Amino acid sequence: QVQLAESGGGLVQAGASLRLSCAASGFPLDQWTIGWFRQAPGKEREGVICINLHNFIQYYSNSVKGRFTPARDNAKNTVYLQMDSLKPEDTGVYYCAAKKGSCINANFDSWGQGTQVTVSS
Q: In sequence order, what DSSP letters do the residues of the chain get, joined into one string?
């Protein structure tokens, strides 16, 4: 059974950094494409960034270019999302998701429960 668990969220001030973790159980994460998504209060969930099994990165949101970076640690079966220069508009619940295949479309099969990120101004 594919299971994902996010952690690392919190309350930070604008300009700060956070690193989110997406830990997998039940399957080897290095064979899956991992996407990060977020949902702000009152808004629909949106794609943020994707990393495929070859470590190719695709941005789903232009607003995070140059600030957010995903990375794999296959030994820990974990994918990270390094978030720098955080802005209040980055606030939301962040989810990781997994699928087979490319980052081209944002349709993912398995989802974590999410972790809250709040950025104060």
A: --EEEEE--EEEETT--EEEEEEEESS-GGGSEEEEEEE-TTS--EEEEEE-TT--EEES-GGGTTTEEEEEEGGGTEEEEEE-S--GGG-EEEEEEEESS-SSS---SEE---EEEEEE-
Dihedral Cα 24, 28, 32, 36, nearest 10 deg: 20
- pLDDT tens profile 62-109: 999 999 999 999 999 999 999 999 999 999 999 999 999 999 988 999
Angle at 14 between CA 51 and CA 82, to 5 degrees: 20
